[in-house]
Amino acid sequence: MASLGYYEVLLALACFLFLAFFATTARLPRKWSLLGTLPSLLCHVHRIHDRSAEVLSQTGGTFLLRGPRFTNMDMLSTVDPANIHYIMSANFLNFPKGPQFLKIFDILGDGIFNSDAESWRSQRKLAQSMVNNRRFHRYLAKTTQDKVETGLIKVLDHVSKQGQVVDLQDLFQRLTFDTTCILVTGYDPGCLSIDLPYVPFSKAMDDAEEAIFSRHIIPESVWKLQRWLGIGHEKKLRNARATLDHVIGKYISMKRDQLRRGIKSNDEEEDGVDLLTSYLNEEEIESDDKFLRDTILNFMIAGRDTTSSALTWFLWLVSTHPDVEEKIREELKSTIPTEETNKWRLFGVEEISKLVYLHGALCESLRLYPPVPFQHKEPHKPDTLPSGHRVDPNMKILFSLYAMGRMKFIWGEDCMEFKPERWLSERGTIKHEPSYKFLAFNAGPRTCLGREVAFTQLKLVVASMIHNYQVQMVKGHTVAPNVSIILYMKHGLKVKVTKRWS
């Protein structure tokens, strides 16, 4: 996903003055009489996640960002667990997604991520029944294992044999795009193969997310003007929407025809079933193409991007912490027969369910590098947060999940350290943290439905990689967060891979 482009040029004179006279990372953002704190935001947009952590650390976890006058861009940024619990759980009904969220994420249509009230409740109930279905979990395990073996392993073996540098971030995006598409629609787009093909469906999702992020940064009037003129990220978004609608529409048509003719792409009784098939078997929504389109796109974005981001940051952390890597390998050995400990092998669902240390390491990675680095809410009515801050319906409330993992008052003096042991109890079991402190899977009634799905996929992939390969960072490669709605790496994750077994 490309970095933010020319939007930093907005209000360039103000930014120049800010940089020349006021901008240091030690200072709090300066408030300008007409422009609010926007110049500070734009000046630090290239490192906005770390800048947010710096400011929130200095302000006790909550800070008011003033937008330019008449732009309706005031934001209250908070990582205070008491505020988050109040907003996400205790007073949930007063903090819906809100009209501003719907404007920014309009490409998601009326899907579950954009819905509130009764629409959200009915969609969540239906989605929950399908995602928690045993047949879907069988399909999840088989799909992930098959794609790891026939896709990821083949590419890794190839680059290892050739001694090539490979971008793991790109591979993981391709892997999760294929697995998510199969799980949601039943069709494999073939994005992950040795030749690393160009797939318009995947590129359209990247372009859409880029445009969504830019809408968070610039005034609504500006991006609406760009949309009207058909320029910049709004032009990309329009083209992306057309591609997404075309491909998803084709999948719906193909699946409906397949079911009508009684054709099964898999032995469904044995291997499970994809989500689109399950939805098409619901009489009330079988013919509602818009609902199906919105649902598929919501599931695709949820499944592809968050999992690939989590995999990328985790493999980087493990490759740069050899002590953690060795502990994971020792735990993997303990789950398999002795005669197989020094051999190439993949892992199954029952085996990965025993991996307590690996689970803790994944949680620790998600704490420091949450796939969705921020989210926002809007109060329906005026309210006062536990921190004492007053909010009204014209104000966005921004949660920085990235900053939250870097707060000493939440995680202690060692909050910047990668310590899987943080998640282990004295009995050697997983220590559960409240969701309003560890927000990677959301909190309250909107807690992520795919939490267990995500952990299953993550463990199946990383167990196979860590057991079978040695991953080494390319010397001099810079790792830094990208500026986007998904926490990707700005320059990818360039590595060399060596097989551990012949």
UniProtKB/TrEMBL annotation:
Keyword set includes Oxidoreductase: yes
Superkingdom classification of source: Eukaryota
GO biological process per UniProt: lipid metabolic process
Binding site for heme: 448
Cross-referenced Pfam families: p450
Cofactor list: heme
Keyword annotations: Heme, Iron, Metal-binding, Monooxygenase, Oxidoreductase
InterPro entries per the UniProt record, alphabetical: Cyt_P450, Cyt_P450_CS, Cyt_P450_E_grp-I, Cyt_P450_sf
UniProt key word Zinc: no
PROSITE patterns per UniProt: CYTOCHROME_P450
UniProt-recorded Gene Ontology molecular function terms: heme binding; iron ion binding; monooxygenase activity; oxidoreductase activity, acting on paired donors, with incorporation or reduction of molecular oxygen
Family: Belongs to the cytochrome P450 family.
Stated name of the protein: Cytochrome P450
